[in-house]
Specification:
The chain has helices spanning about 20-25, 50-55, 190-215; strands at about 5-10, 30-35, 40-45, 60-65, 75-85, 90-100, 105-115, 125-130, 135-140, 145-150, 160, 175, 180-190. The chain has 2 domains: about 1-100, Ribosomal Protein L25, Chain P, CATH 2.40.240.10; about 105-190, RNA Polymerase Alpha Subunit, Chain A, domain 2 (Beta Complex). It is an alpha+beta fold. A hairpin with a 2-residue loop joins strand 2 (about 30-35) and strand 3. The protein has a 6-stranded mixed beta barrel with strand order 1-3-2-6-5-4.
Length: about 250
Amino acid sequence: MHESAPILKAFTREKLGSRYARRMRDEGKLPAVIYGHKAEPVAIMLDFKEATDHFSAGEKVFRLDFPGQHNKDEMQMVLLKELQFDFLGNGIVHADMARVDLNEVIRTRVAIHLTGEAVGLKAAGAILIHPVSEIVIECKVRDIPEYINVDVTSLDVDQSITADKVKLPLADMKLITDGHAIVAQIVEQREVVTAEAATVGTDAAAPEAAAGAKAAAPAAGAKPAAGAAGAKPAAGAKPAAGAAAAKPAAKK
């Protein structure tokens, strides 16, 4: 399968360190390292655009073309193990590659591509979700697939396809990902909207009730209404029963 694996031109790096790595990236190169098979790690650099185009296409196995190497059938076969990104998580800044043999059995991640139009999508409010977009399998290096297709045509509402239902390309391949992991599922979006609307309605009623309660209570420091206890009697009014009579004026 990988006799036609992409060829990456590689150059040995003599200077190491973040400063030199930054300078290489500015010049259109990608710092990388190859290791494994009981050999010493080798720091290399790749053409940034050439390498990242292959990475974006899902390629994992490559043949490295070093200067002075003429027999392409004996090129070093390597497996992309890890990509390192900048602090924003957008740009690739480094690649780790492991030496491999085509018959070596390894574990690797493989992308899942959903194909077909699910019958359940015809229902109002139904949507297709794709929680797991790649699975981990165990296989020989020569058999690593670029991706695995999963047909969702017969998938209906409230149905799902789990990882253990994914058909692997070859019989000797082994699924490592948890078999219960959901690869594809049809759900009704209306249930989520209804629940949100009910929550909003409940929250809106609370402030209105609170506002009504405040209106019923008197404002702090308000003066009592006319006729309330403690009001002064009107001028000329008779004293209340039981009140002491006023003393007569003294005669001259």
